[in-house]
Design brief:
Elements: H1 6-13, H2 17-26, H3 28-54, E1 56-66, E2 69-79, H4 83-94, H5 106-137
Antiparallel strand pairs: 1-2
Helix pairs in contact: 1-2, 2-3, 3-4
Length: 145
C-alpha cells in the first residue's frame, strides 16, 4: 500500500478520512510509516519516469511454439525516450510551466507587457544575428564533424 491516499486507507480500514487524520496525530509511528511509504512510492515513480524520459532497455525473452517445439529466444527490449515523460520530469523537477501567465492591470499593465515582449524579441533577434554571423564567418558551416 505504498503511497496510498488517506481516502484509500480509510476505505481499507473501514473508517473515514478524518479518523485517519486523527490516527496520524495520535500515533506518531503510524504517521511516520505513512510518510515513509509515500516517500518510497514517490521515489519509485520518479525513477521509472526518469528512465521513461531518457529511454531504456532491459533483457527479455521471446517464446514461440511451432508444432509443439517451444523456443525461448533471449533479446533486449528497447523503449525510446518519451518527450511527454521528459516534460513531466522537467515540470516537476525544474519548475517548467505549461503556459505563461501575464496579469494586466489596465492600460499600464498592457503597455508594460508589450514593452517586456518587445525587449524579449530584441534579445532573441540579437542572439539570432550573433548566431548567423558566427556561421557566416565559418566556411565549414559551424558544425562539428
Amino acid at each position: 500500500m505504498l503511497g496510498a491516499t488517506d481516502k484509500f486507507l480509510g476505505d481499507f480500514f473501514g473508517v473515514t478520512e478524518r479518523t485517519i487524520d486523527n490516527w496520524k496525530i495520535k500515533h506518531a509511528s503510524f504517521f511516520q510509516a505513512l510518510k515513509n511509504g509515500k516517500t518510497v512510492a514517490d521515489a519509485e515513480v520518479a525513477h521509472a519516469l526518469y528512465h521513461r524520459a531518457i529511454g531504456y532497455s532491459h533483457p527479455d525473452v521471446h517464446i514461440t511454439n511451432y508444432l509443439g517445439d517451444i523456443t525461448i529466444t533471449p533479446l533486449t527490449k528497447y523503449y525510446p525516450p518519451d518527450t511527454a515523460a521528459g516534460f513531466i520530469w522537467l515540470k516537476n523537477r525544474q519548475g517548467w510551466r505549461d503556459r505563461s501567465e501575464v496579469e494586466h492591470s489596465g492600460l499600464e499593465g498592457l503597455v508594460s507587457a508589450l514593452r517586456a515582449s518587445d525587449e524579449q524579441m530584441a534579445r532573441d533577434r540579437a542572439e539570432a544575428e550573433r548566431f548567423q554571423s558566427g556561421r557566416e564567418s565559418d566556411p565549414g558551416g559551424g558544425g562539428d564533424a
